[in-house]
Design brief:
The structure is a homodimer. Chain A is mostly helical. Chain A has a single domain, classed as 434 Repressor (Amino-terminal Domain), CATH 1.10.260.40. In chain A, β1 and β2 form a beta hairpin. The first copy, chain A, is globular. Chain A starts with a helix and ends in a 12-residue tail after the last strand. At the A-B interface, α1, α4, β1 and β2 of A face α1, α4, β1 and β2 of B. β1 of chain A pairs antiparallel with β1 of chain B. Chain B binds a DNA duplex through α3.
DNA sequence: TGCGAAATATCCCTTTCGGGAAAATTCTCT
DNA sequence: AGAGAATTTTCCCGAAAGGGATATTTCGCA
């Protein structure tokens, strides 16, 4: 299982891969700079929706592998920013 | 990209698959009952760390598929409940 | 040595989460 | 179908934390 620290590291790596600064990725993801800094640092209390926003901005796909081995992955790019409530 | 609502649905499905009640899974995950209710409902502001705790309790693995197709899946390490700060 | 990027700190408002119990919804069984 | 049981959801409260924006400090690299 990936922990938050690892996810943060992946996000950082991907961001650099794309040649983006933190504030640029933050803006592109619709989150604050401070949020991105804390996310890359692995803070466990970051909000999940925003994490997904950042991942989406990076073009990454999140997947869940069930105990039986089946991997569930949604659509690759869905710039949905808000769906709760 | 999986959105929070979908993740919540997957969690609910997995929970039922295991024959657990919400309060049982919440207890097993170390989160509050209300948190689990909100998570399964797809609330986007749930805390990432707790979501991972719940997924771990269900035996699910989280993975990130990078744009280049490489899938990153952390080791199925111990159910760490607290690692930041 | 100096500039851009990254990390921190602070202010301040909004929101989350937990716990217990009631209310509401869903399911089961005769 | 109806009663009753089980499960889920919501509510209240308070404590705690998130996070945006900005200013400042630290770090990295040429």
């Amino acid at each position: 299982m990936l922990n938050v620290a690892t996810i943060g590291q992946i996000i950082r790596d991907e961001r650099k891969e794309l040649g983006l600064r933190q504030d640029e990725l933050a803006a592109a993801s619709g989150v604050g700079l401070r949020f991105l800094v804390e996310l890359e640092r692995g803070k466990v209390t970051v909000q999940m929706g925003k994490v997904l926003d950042v991942l989406a901005a990076l073009g990454c796909e999140l997947q869940i592998k069930r105990p039986d081995g089946i991997v569930i992955a949604g659509r690759a790019d869905a710039p949905k920013k808000d769906e709760a409530e």
